[in-house]
Amino acid sequence: MTQNTFVNFSIKVVLLFSLTFGIHLGILKALGLPLWAHYILWSYIINLSLVVVIFGFLYYFRKKYKEQLGFLFLFGSLFKFLVFFIFFYPIYKADGTISRAEFATFFIPYAVGLIFETLSLGKWLNNLD
Question: Quick one: average pLDDT of 26-49?
Fold first, then answer.
């Protein structure tokens, strides 16, 4: 496995997030909702960054902790939730409730990243020496 694995992953996930972000904005526009509300841009940037950093961390430690990569991946997912509860939850809960739009603003990029990460990691683990 070469460094191209990490580079290819990063390029694909950036393209996927860009596409998802465009679709998300298109749906908001079609529904007549504000496009830039609820820190949507930050949500996508932070989720994308965390996906790339976590995958990069796993890639870097792939040989040293080969048997523990699945657990490290789970800790990475827990870390992403921790980031949500530290940075986004207080903002979204400030008015006493989390709206569907606020939930979607965080959850859509989180879910897209998690699914892509999981599928990529599954393929990657099957090809480790």
Answer: 95
